[in-house]
C-alpha cells in the first residue's frame, strides 16, 4: 500500500510540469498556432529558473526561489515571441519554426551554462521547492496521504491553473473568441475579432506556462540544469494535450496518467507482478496510447480545426 | 525575380546570416570570434591559422566528411518526404530502428564480410521504411497529420530499440550499457587505414543513396507522380494517380534513407549495438539539411557538408575555448530563417528595389 501511495505521489510530482506545459499548448493550439516548441520553451524556463536561483542563492537574495520562478516565466514568454513573430506575422510553417526553436533552446541553454558557470550544466542550487502538506486535509484516509501530504507546491499550482484555464477558455467571452480563432479565423475576423491579437495573447500565454513548467520540473526533480533535464517531456506534454482532447480537465487526467506511466517504469522492479515487464514498455506507453487516441479521435473532429494553418485574412 | 533563384537566395541569406550571428553571439559573450574562425577553418581544411608551420592535417578533413555522411542521408530522408508534400519529423526514430536492425543482423547472422555488411544496411533501410509506413498510412487513409505521429514514433523507437537490445542481444558484461562488439564481417572499415580518422566505406552507401534520390525524384514517372501528389493531392487524383499509395510509398522511401543513416553510423563508428539514453538528433538535423538544401539533390549534398562542418567543428571549438553549442545555435538560426522566408523575401525585395532605384539613377540607359 505504501508503495502505491508513494508511486501516486511521485506521479503527481512529475505530472505537474506536464500539465502546466500542456495547458500552454492548449492556449496556443486553441488559437490556431501549433506549439511544437514546448520542449524548447521548457528548456529555457528550466535553465532560467536553475541559473537565476543558483546566482541569487549565492548572493543571499531573499525570496530567491519565487523570483527565479518569475524569471523562468518571463524568459519563456520572451522566447515564445519567436513563435509569435514567425507563425503569426511571417507565415512560417509552424512545425519548422518550432523545430528550429527546440534546437535553439537546447544549444542556447548549454552555451549560456558554459559562459556563466564554465560547465555543461549550471551549478547546483542549495535548496529548491519544499514539500508542503495541507493541515486538516492530509489526515483524510487514502486521499489525504496522496493529494495533501508532502507534495511540491507545483502540483497545486498545476491544479489551480487547470481550473483557471478551464474558466478562461470555456466560460468567458475572451475564451470563446480565442477558440473561434482556432476553428475558423476568417469568420472570427468578420465578427470584429482581432485574430492577430488573440493569437499573440495565446502564444505568449503558452510561453509563460511553458517557462513555468520548465521551472516546476527543474526545481522539483533536479538540483541543477543540464542538457537532459527536459528529455522530451515537452513532447509528452503535446501528447498530454492531444490525449486530453484539448480540454483542461482532459489535460489534468492525461497528465496524471502519463506521469504515472513514467513512474511505473522506475518502480516496476519493486512490484511483484510487474517486475517481469521491462521499464521501457512503460516509458513508451504514453506515446503508443497517444497514437491510438489520435486514430480514435480522427473519426470526429476533436482538435481545433485551424490549428497549424497560416492565418490569411484574405482567404475564405 | 524568377522563383528558383529566390529560393537559392533565401538559403544563402539564411546560411550567411546564421553564421554571422554565431560570430556576434561569441563576441557578445566575451569569447574570441577570431578563435572561432580559426576553429572553423581548421575543421574544414586541417590548417591551424595560429600555427601555420604545422601545415595541413588531413585527419580534420576526413572527420568533416565522416560527420557529413549521416547528415546527407537524413537530409535525403526529410527532403524526399518534403518533395511529396509530407513533413517527416520522424527521421530520428527511423534512424534508431535502422541502427537497431543493423545491430541485430550484425550480431545474429553469419556471412562473409561484404555480403554481411550489405545485408546489415538493407535490413536497416527496411526497418526505417517500415517505421515510416505507419504515419504514411494514417496520413493517406485517415488524413491524420504525420507530424505528431512521427514525433511519438521517435520516442517509441528509442525505448523499443533499448528493450530489444537489452533483451535479445548479447550485452557487454564490462559496461552493461551496450552489446558486445560486432564481428569483423559486419562493419565498414577505414578508407585510409593509416589515418586516425574513422572515415569509412560507409560513404559508398551515401553516394548510392544520393544517386537513388536524384534518379527517383527527377528522372522517373514514379517520382513525378510523387511530386505531383505533393503539389496538389486532388489534381493528382484527378490525373489518375494513386494518391494514397504514393503517400505511403513516399514515407517508406523517406524512412529507408533515415534507416541507412542509422546503419552508416553504427557500422562505421560504434561497431556495437547501442542503448540510447538520449537521441543523436541526426533526424532533426536532416530537417535543417533538407530545408537549406531546398530538397534538391545538389542542395542537400552541399547543406550536408555545411552542417557536417558545424558538427565536426565541435572539438576544435572546445579546444579554442568556444562552447561547442554555438554550432547548434547557428544551425537553429539558419533553419529559423528558412522557416520565416516570407520575411526574408520581403527584406530581399526591399533591398533589390533600393538597388534598382540606385541603378536607374546611375546608369539609366543600361537598366532598360
Describe the overall structure.
- The complex is a heterodimer of chains A (316) and B (368).
- Chain A has 12 helices and no strands.
- Chain A has 316 residues and is mostly helical.
- Chain A has a single domain (2-297), classed as ABC transporter involved in vitamin B12 uptake, BtuC (Orthogonal Bundle), CATH 1.10.3470.
- Chain A is globular.
- Chain B has a domain at 69-303.
- Chain B is an all-alpha fold.
- In chain B, helix 2 crosses helix 3 and helix 5 packs antiparallel against helix 6.
- The two termini of chain B are 16 Å apart.
- Chains A and B meet through helix 3, helix 4, helix 10 and helix 12 of A and helix 5, helix 6, helix 11, helix 13 and helix 14 of B.
State Rg of chain B: 22 Å
How large is the radius of gyration of chain A? Answer: 20 Å
Q: pLDDT below 50 for ≥5 consecutive residues: which ranges of chain B?
A: 361-368
Summarize the largest interface: chains and residue counts.
A-B, 47 and 50 residues
Instruction: Compute the separation of the termini of chain B in Å.
Output: 16 Å
CATH class of chain A: Mainly Alpha
Per DSSP E runs of 2 or more residues, the count of β-strands of chain A stands at 0
Amino acid at each position: 500500500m505504501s508503495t502505491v501511495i508513494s508511486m501516486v505521489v511521485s506521479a503527481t510530482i512529475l505530472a505537474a510540469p506536464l500539465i502546466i506545459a500542456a495547458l500552454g499548448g492548449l492556449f496556443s493550439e486553441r488559437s490556431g498556432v501549433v506549439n511544437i516548441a514546448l520542449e524548447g520553451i521548457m528548456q529555457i524556463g528550466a535553465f532560467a529558473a536553475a541559473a537565476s536561483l543558483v546566482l541569487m542563492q549565492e548572493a543571499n537574495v531573499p525570496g530567491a526561489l519565487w523570483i527565479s520562478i518569475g524569471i523562468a516565466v518571463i524568459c519563456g514568454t520572451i522566447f515564445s515571441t519567436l513563435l509569435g513573430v514567425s507563425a503569426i506575422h511571417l507565415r512560417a510553417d509552424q512545425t519548422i519554426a518550432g523545430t528550429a526553436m527546440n534546437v535553439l533552446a537546447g544549444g542556447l541553454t548549454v552555451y549560456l551554462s558554459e559562459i556563466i558557470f564554465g560547465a555543461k550544466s549550471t551549478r547546483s542550487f542549495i535548496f529548491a521547492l519544499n514539500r508542503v502538506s495541507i493541515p486538516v486535509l492530509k489526515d483524510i484516509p487514502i486521499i489525504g496521504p496522496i493529494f495533501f501530504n508532502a507534495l511540491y507546491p507545483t502540483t497545486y499550482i498545476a491544479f489551480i491553473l487547470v481550473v483557471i484555464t478551464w474558466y478562461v477558455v470555456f466560460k468567458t467571452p475572451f475564451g470563446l473568441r480565442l477558440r473561434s480563432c482556432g476553428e475558423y479565423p476568417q469568420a472570427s475576423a468578420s465578427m470584429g475579432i482581432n485574430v492577430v491579437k488573440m493569437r499573440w495573447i495565446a502564444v505568449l500565454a503558452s510561453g509563460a506556462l511553458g517557462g513555468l513548467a520548465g521551472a516546476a520540473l527543474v526545481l522539483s526533480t533536479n538540483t541543477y540544469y543540464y542538457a537532459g533535464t527536459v528529455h522530451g517531456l515537452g513532447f509528452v506534454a503535446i501528447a498530454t494535450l492531444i490525449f486530453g482532447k484539448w480540454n483542461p480537465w482532459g489535460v489534468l487526467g492525461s497528465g496524471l496518467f502519463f506521469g504515472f506511466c513514467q513512474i511505473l517504469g522506475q518502480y516496476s522492479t519493486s512490484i511483484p507482478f510487474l517486475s517481469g515487464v521491462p521499464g521501457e514498455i512503460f516509458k513508451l506507453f504514453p506515446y503508443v496510447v497517444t497514437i491510438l487516441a489520435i486514430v480514435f479521435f480522427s473519426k470526429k473532429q476533436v482538435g481545433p480545426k485551424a490549428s497549424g494553418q497560416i492565418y490569411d485574412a484574405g482567404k475564405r | 525575380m524568377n522563383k528558383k533563384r529566390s529560393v537559392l537566395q533565401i538559403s544563402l541569406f539564411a546560411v550567411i546570416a546564421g553564421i554571422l550571428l554565431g560570430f556576434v553571439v561569441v563576441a557578445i559573450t566575451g569569447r574570441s570570434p577570431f578563435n572561432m574562425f580559426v576553429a572553423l577553418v581548421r575543421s574544414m581544411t586541417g590548417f591551424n591559422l595560429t600555427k601555420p608551420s604545422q601545415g595541413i592535417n588531413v585527419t580534420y578533413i576526413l572527420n568533416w566528411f565522416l560527420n557529413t555522411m549521416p547528415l546527407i542521408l537524413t537530409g535525403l530522408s526529410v527532403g524526399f518526404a518534403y518533395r511529396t508534400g509530407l513533413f517527416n519529423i520522424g527521421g530520428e526514430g527511423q534512424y534508431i530502428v535502422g541502427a537497431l536492425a543493423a545491430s541485430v543482423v550484425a550480431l545474429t547472422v553469419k556471412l562473409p564480410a561484404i555480403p554481411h555488411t550489405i545485408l546489415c544496411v538493407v535490413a536497416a533501410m527496411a526497418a526505417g521504411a517500415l517505421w515510416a509506413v505507419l504515419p504514411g498510412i494514417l496520413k493517406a487513409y485517415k488524413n491524420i497529420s504525420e507530424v505528431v505521429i512521427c514525433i511519438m514514433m521517435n520516442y517509441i523507437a528509442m525505448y523499443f530499440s533499448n528493450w530489444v537490445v537489452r533483451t535479445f542481444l548479447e550485452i557487454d558484461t564490462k559496461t552493461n550499457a551496450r552489446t558486445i562488439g560486432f564481428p569483423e564481417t559486419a562493419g565498414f572499415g577505414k578508407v585510409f587505414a593509416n589515418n586516425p580518422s574513422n572515415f569509412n566505406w560507409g560513404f559508398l552507401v551515401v553516394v548510392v543513396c544520393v544517386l537513388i534520390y536524384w534518379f527517383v525524384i527527377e528522372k522517373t514517372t514514379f517520382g513525378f507522380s510523387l511530386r505531383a501528389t505533393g503539389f496538389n493531392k486532388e489534381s493528382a487524383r484527378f490525373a489518375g494517380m494513386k494518391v494514397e499509395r504514393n503517400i505511403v510509398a513516399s514515407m517508406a522511401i523517406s524512412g529507408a534513407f533515415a534507416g541507412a543513416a542509422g546503419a552508416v553510423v553504427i557500422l562505421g563508428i560504434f561497431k556495437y549495438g547501442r542503448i540510447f539514453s538520449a537521441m543523436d538528433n541526426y533526424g532533426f538535423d536532416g530537417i535543417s539539411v533538407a530545408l537549406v538544401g531546398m530538397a534538391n539533390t545538389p542542395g542537400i549534398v552541399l547543406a550536408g557538408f555545411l552542417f557536417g562542418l558545424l558538427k565536426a567543428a565541435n572539438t576544435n571549438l572546445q579546444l579554442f575555448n568556444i562552447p561547442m553549442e554555438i554550432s547548434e545555435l547557428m544551425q537553429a538560426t539558419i533553419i529559423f530563417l528558412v522557416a520565416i522566408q516570407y520575411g526574408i523575401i520581403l527584406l530581399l525585395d526591399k533591398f533589390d528595389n533600393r538597388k534598382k532605384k540606385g541603378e536607374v539613377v546611375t546608369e539609366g540607359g543600361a537598366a532598360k
